[in-house]
Amino acid sequence: MNEFLPFSRPSIDEATIASVAETLRSGWITSGPKVQEFEKQLSAYFGGRPVRTFNSGTCTMEIALRIAGIGHGDEVITTPISWVATANVILEVGATPVFADVDPVTRNIDLSKVETAITPRTKAIIPVYLAGKPVDMDRLYKIAARHKLRVIEDAAQAIGSTWQGKPIGSFGDFVSFSFQANKNITTSEGGCLVLNNAEEAALAEKYRLQGVTRSGYDGIEVDVLGGKFNMTDIAATIGLGQFAQLNVITEQRHKLARHYFTTLGKDFEAPTGAQLPPADFENTNWHLFQIVLPERITRADFMARMKDKNIGIGYHYAPIHLFKLYRALGFKEGMFPIAERVGRQIISLPMFAAMNESDVERTCVAMCEVLKN
Fold first, then answer.
1. How confident is the model over 84-112, as pLDDT tens digits?
2. With bands split at pLDDT 50, 70 and 90, how would you rate the model's confidence at 373?
3. CATH label of the domain that carries residue 54
4. Could you give the number of structural domains in the chain?
């Protein structure tokens, strides 16, 4: 039998491993010169915008909300289909999450439903770019401008994605990226926040390290309540090695995604009842290749049968509003029917840079067998 094919696996080259060893030997392993270099390279990629790195792609969103002055009494609109962190950060700053249903094709937040969810208390929108596919960015920012809302882009999965030829993160408001282990590039754990100006960047630095500002040899002051969110030089060293390969990784993911479509063929959807993702090769970085299963098979059954064929399947994501924490806030089944259907049946097929076309073919054959039976 073929060896197990996971749905995701990071690729760390020997040069990066050697660089990590050098960092460990250097005697400087927490935030230092490697973090500064990583931020410098990221800033250049995002068109010179200020960038600060952190120990996760979750705290980046929380800090963006705090910089925007969002808290108790405010509402923030987001999608029910995301990792729960997207909504948790809204609760963390004391604001109220408001969900808008998703588009049945893109599975991203439906911008027409965002407009209907806006109230006088709405202060921000957190769109999520599921599988790396951006929402209609022009429309998003027109809505935000019309209603004077801040935008915190949850671009956790979208490093390498674009809009009209420009990298996601090179324009807009706050843009948050994740470098967690299964992302297109990784720092093992970590993230970065793209900001609008030097003042926001300075405030982000305070929030990531206990609110501290230092001056001179021994000057220290604390004027905001910060946390412990800094990235280490070890993580930044991994990030530098990964970031150098971003274009190669993105091209490989495009190649694999194209082969999924070619192998499954135009006649895959009708007989199986499954729904493919949009074939977007202009803007999407293909972080995930996701299929919505037909209702006649449960996701757990599908995953178990694929595991029997030595193929790992991912699950992204459960509808946030149906977790107990959010039910206690008044959310319930039936409120966002498209998100509930997608969340019940969506699966992520194997997709990572070290895969080859035979891995894609093997996955497609196994999936078709499972769906036919």
1. 999 999 999 999 999 999 999 999 999 99
2. confident
3. 3.40.640.10
4. 2
Here the CATH number for the domain that contains residue 322 is 3.90.1150.10
pLDDT, average across residues 330-354: 98
8-state DSSP, 6: -
**Average of pLDDT values for 66-77?**
98
pLDDT confidence of residue 150: 98
Dist CA 246 CA 118 (whole Å)? 37
Query: Tokens 């407009």 correspond to what residue?
Result: 115
Longest Cα separation, the chain: 71
* C-beta of residue 151 within 8 angstroms of C-beta of residue 111: no
Helices (H) and strands (E) in the chain, counts: 14, 13
Which amino acid appears at position 305 of this protein?
R
How far CA 189 is from CA of 104, 122, 170, 331, in Å, comes to 31, 31, 23, 31
118: tokens are 């806006």
Single residue among 211, 243, 275 that ends a domain in this structure = 243
* Alpha-helical regions (H) of the chain: 14-26, 33-45, 59-67, 85-92, 111-117, 137-147, 198-208, 233-243, 246-264, 269-272, 299-308, 324-327, 337-345, 357-372
Distances (CA, A) of 340 to 29, 76, 299, 323: 44, 20, 13, 12
- Please state, rounded to an integer, the average pLDDT across all residues of the chain: 97
Domain extent, residue 168, equals 14-243
Last residue in a domain, options 243, 266, 289? 243
User: Strand 166-167 to strand 219-222: parallel, antiparallel, or no bridges (unpaired)?
Assistant: unpaired
Q: Are residues 326 and 199 in the same domain?
A: no
Find out whether the peptide bond into 317 is cis, omega within 30 degrees of 0: yes
- List residues with catalytic annotation: 183
Residue of 119, 126, 63 whose CA lies nearest to 93: 63
100 and 214 share one domain: yes
Q: Is residue 1 scored above 80 in pLDDT?
A: no
- State how far Cα 45 lies from the chain centre: 18
Q: How far apart are CA 156 and CA 192, in angstroms?
A: 9
d(CA 94, CA 144): 21
Q: Work out the average pLDDT over 76-90.
A: 98
Q: Average pLDDT, stretch 204-229?
A: 97
